[in-house]
Design goal:
2 copies of one chain form a homodimer. Chain A is of the alpha/beta class. The longest helix of chain A has 14 residues.
């Protein structure tokens, strides 16, 4: 899946004298052809060319450097407007500016169309200068361990799981961008006694060795709720206190009868179902959470962006950034090169083959 | 179902001079013959006679006045020891005491065997003198609106639903002991904008008129998830902010797609499933609570008995007791007379016919 081909950047003017030429240059973008039913394919998008256009007062022109592809996008595609580019998080470089807050060469983060170039207003939603990253990480970390997926892990573990030292924690999707961090935070920041991950066969050993999970269960091997429950019981003989769920399916359902009193369940993703055209049927389990007084909380990262009036990003960058910079927290990027591979990179998410955060290097 | 036959109390000595005779007197109890699969029947229990026995130092002998039958008992029966009496909450009178904390004539609350008489240690779990009830309510209220069911409603609404003025609230089992109070508290203490109940056909009008629900949906009429959802949408056009669930089934599942951001769901009972021999299959819904950031919380009343080190019963009796005493909060008791009808009274819970709290008047 990794491609090394690089897009020739010959249409890009990167010095001030040639800015006036940008307006007549071309850009490319991936527009959504149809709202997919089931698994999307590369044909779900169309690569189109268009003029970049002129930038107005207050605007900036940015060039995409890294495009993020994330599971949450799948839900958006179901209802996103067609014939318009799909939008996701990007790290981009300002190549022309008529906004005095941004200058040429600034790196920014914003939610942008899947396009090589984008003209932006200075107050565009989510637009921010890339600051606060440790010196020894690549800017693409702003899309992963030190960006939205990182905050999803950090906010969920901190605010929902509220792990006490010695507790037993389960994380599904243990080799993914969010799960790998959630497991490490449970152990390093909150001193969990045992952290159990679930992932697919080829990533079991990696998750154990590299991310430090105490136990990792291969969900392909324990492929029914009953088998998964027996294995979870074996590795968590004292019951489970907290569960960080990215995936849904057998792990999630095996756990309902294994929770200790006052267990917490953070529901951040259910990727195993995202391409189902119908909701799957499962056994009802709400009766199981009454006597164990379990808390189940759906959430998205932005729910905890501001807590009691205080923006949490600086605390996140301080706490997690320092662990990342020092190498105590491990993270991986699966870099797929070439803007033209953006849809393919997105589809990789649903093949269960990736370790860490998938980004497209434009 | 109501019986007016009273048990002759000729074996009961109620004055001090005859206490010594109690030891040789007989009592009756209902012992569990088998752990029921599916719906229990009257043959699930056996009525047995035995000697009361002598009371020792520190002990008291109590005579059952009111026996509580509650949905939660159904789950206990599945694993309760057989050939022993079923245990539930009771209001009883001290008829003999060798414990200086209790004297003859004291009314007490305790979790006691289904028996006419019980010998108790002074420190028996849950044993407490009946105090703090308003003067104008019958002591049986300690089993209902001012007892465990009342606290279940109050603690769940207060601690989990955390209703803000104007919000839309749904309560299943709206005519039951817990649901009828939960709905009234939502409106009177927390100023909910709209409180919607669900119950069966014959209780719809009563719940509306007597308990003040703004809308009451007949779950027998809207008997699929789709029909129930359409009706809920009609009566809650602005979405639902909080749900107090005693029942499970179609109401619970219709709601997953109707929640507003940050909705709260208190799971206190799932009575519609208690007699299923297998868990029912339902459509998976965890994916629905991610973007709406819904909180789902299983609980039992005792979870909130002590909050931050402070026992909450006095606050409960003050807040709810005063509303009950003044008649602002309505409650009903369905009194079934005669100790011998205790199993029958319990089975009434699963027939959907009762309004308010079912108690056996011994």
């Amino acid at each position: 899946m990794q491609r090394t081909k690089r897009i020739a950047a010959h249409i890009v003017a990167t010095n001030k004298t040639s800015y006036h030429t940008m307006s007549n240059s071309k850009t490319q973008s991936f527009t959504l052809l149809e709202n997919p039913q089931g698994l999307p394919t590369e044909q779900t998008w169309k690569l189109v060319s268009s003029d970049i256009g002129t930038i107005q007062d207050d605007q900036v022109l940015v060039k995409a450097l890294y495009i993020s592809v994330d599971p949450y996008l799948r839900n958006r595609l179901a209802t996103a407007p067609t014939n318009q580019p799909t939008v996701s998080g990007q790290v981009a470089e300002v190549v022309e500016s008529k906004n005095n807050k941004y200058k040429t060469g600034d790196l920014i983060f914003a939610y942008l169309p899947w396009a090589r170039y984008t003209v932006l207003k200075g107050n565009e939603q989510g637009l921010q200068k890339l600051t606060g990253l440790p010196n020894n990480v690549n800017p693409s970390a702003a899309l992963g361990v030190l960006g939205m997926p990182g905050m999803t892990a950090y906010f969920g573990v901190k605010n929902i799981l509220q792990i006490k030292p010695g507790e037993t924690v389960v994380v599904s999707g243990a080799a993914g961008a969010v799960g790998s961090l959630a497991g490490q935070l449970a152990k390093q920041l909150y001193k969990a006694g045992k952290v159990i991950g679930t992932t697919s066969t080829d990533k079991v050993e990696y998750a154990k060795q590299h991310y430090g999970f105490d136990e990792v269960i291969d969900y392909k091997k324990f492929d029914t709720i009953e088998k998964m429950r027996a294995e979870l019981k074996r590795v968590a003989p004292n019951g489970v206190d907290a569960y960080y769920d990215n995936v849904g399916g057998t792990v999630t359902h095996a756990l309902w009868s294994l929770y200790n009193k006052y267990a917490r369940v953070a529901i951040c993703g259910q990727i195993s179902y995202y391409n189902n055209t119908q909701l799957p049927t499962v056994q009802e389990w709400l009766g199981k959470i009454i006597y164990s007084s379990v808390l189940v909380k759906g959430f998205v990262w932005s729910d905890y962006l501001v807590v009691d009036g205080v923006n949490q990003v600086p605390t996140f960058l301080k706490e997690v950034g320092s662990l990342v910079a020092s190498g105590k927290i491990k993270f991986d990027e699966h870099v797929i090169e070439g803007f033209e591979n953006t849809p393919k990179a997105f589809l990789t998410l649903f093949q269960g083959g990736n370790i860490g955060k998938i980004v497209v290097k434009v």
